[in-house]
Design goal:
Oligomer: single chain
CATH class of the largest domain: Mainly Beta
Helix content: under 10%
Largest sheet: 9 strands, mixed
Shape: globular
Number of domains: 3
Strand content: 25-35%
Number of strands: 21
Strand order of the largest sheet: 1-4-17-6-15-18-19-21-20
Structural class: mainly beta
CATH architecture of the largest domain: Sandwich
Order of helices and strands: EEEEEEEEEEEEEEEEEEEHHEE
């Protein structure tokens, strides 16, 4: 069966993950190229997308941010399968990115949803404009009130929000991460990585958006370097994978992702999933896996500001056996 390349131009954007009608059907092994809006709904020229291009209909939720391209159905994908999303390229398509401070948003709010107790007075709303040098892959921010008047940081483009339709027919805001992926804000979802998502509905229904030019661990102010991009993915169906949470691998690590509140619960989910992966697919005894993970594991905090928090547990590939049991990743 010949693999195909699909270039999809979005006619409208969903603001939620759910059992929405697929905009395009793919076969396993096909490549998909899409252009994303920034988190605020602006295109590569800085123009805000018309409200008429935000999808409306039964079961649709309207989020405050993160318009999504899709969903894309994958032929023959059924509950119990998984989708392997090989992230081949993320090309930023404009020379600016923005970030912001928002009152009662970010990591200094209370961890209990809906309770506005803060350790510090709320920050004033402010927008920050970063200039992107796409040749040097750097971002620069002017800081005239600080001793250093300008800061320059490296770019690390990644997909902030990517996921499938959730289980049980749920519809979740594009701001929310969960077992379906979603707004994980995990910098490991970058070019060269393969993200593996469980399939809960026929076709999987993959959607994505919210590319970040860079972001620190936790996304503590609640907003990364928001920009637009062209993203190229190769989609592969993994029959009967039977995974419950997102996982990922790149040249250096295998990664499992947990999303929940409080933060410790997300931490536990991510590491429980890692232990299960090491035992089931790599042949470790559970006690040995726990001991080794305790000593060499690394933890990435995706975000501590969304409706659910996101934690990525990382295990170095150099300590894995030469090939997984059954030849699977």
């Amino acid at each position: 069966m010949q693999r195909q390349m699909h270039r999809y131009e979005a006619a409208c954007y969903h603001m939620s993950y759910g059992p929405h009608k697929p905009v395009l059907w793919l076969r396993s092994g096909d490549t998909l190229v899409v252009r994303t809006l920034d988190a605020g709904g602006r295109d590569e020229r800085g123009r805000r997308v018309s409200l008429r291009r935000l999808c409306q209909g039964p079961g649709e939720l309207r989020s405050a941010a993160n318009p999504l391209v899709g969903p894309f159905g994958v032929e023959e994908a059924q509950p119990g399968d998984a989708l392997a999303i090989h992230i081949e390229q993320i090309r930023i398509t404009r020379s600016t990115a923005w970030s912001a401070f928002l009152p009662h948003f970010g990591c200094f709010t209370d961890e209990v949803p809906g309770r506005l107790m803060q350790l510090l007075p709320p920050v004033r709303e402010r927008r920050c404009l970063w200039r992107l040098d796409l040749r040097r892959m750097q971002a620069t921010l002017r800081m005239p009130r600080s001793r250093i008047r300008m800061a320059t940081i490296p770019l690390h483009p990644f997909i902030g929000s990517i996921g499938v339709a959730p289980r049980w027919g749920r519809v979740e805001l594009s701001l929310t991460p969960g077992e379906y992926g979603g707004n994980m804000d995990c910098p490991e979802t970058s070019a060269g990585s393969t993200l593996i998502l469980p399939v809960f509905v026929a076709g999987g229904l993959l959607s994505l958006g919210d590319v970040h030019a860079a972001q620190g661990d936790g996304e503590i102010c609640g907003v990364a370097l928001e920009t637009t991009a062209e993203v190229r993915l190769r989609i592969e169906r993994l029959p009967k994978a039977r995974i419950e949470w997102p996982r990922l691998y790149n040249n250096d690590y295998i990664v499992t992702i947990g999303c929940a509140r409080p933060l410790l619960e997300a931490f536990k989910i991510a590491h429980r999933e890692m232990l299960g992966w090491l035992v089931r697919d790599y042949g470790f005894h559970r006690d040995d896996a726990l001991q080794l993970l305790s000593q060499v594991g690394r933890t990435r905090i995706g975000n501590v500001c969304d409706p659910n928090y996101c934690v990525a547990a990382k295990f170095p590939r150099r300590l894995l056996p030469p090939s997984p049991a059954g030849g699977k990743k």
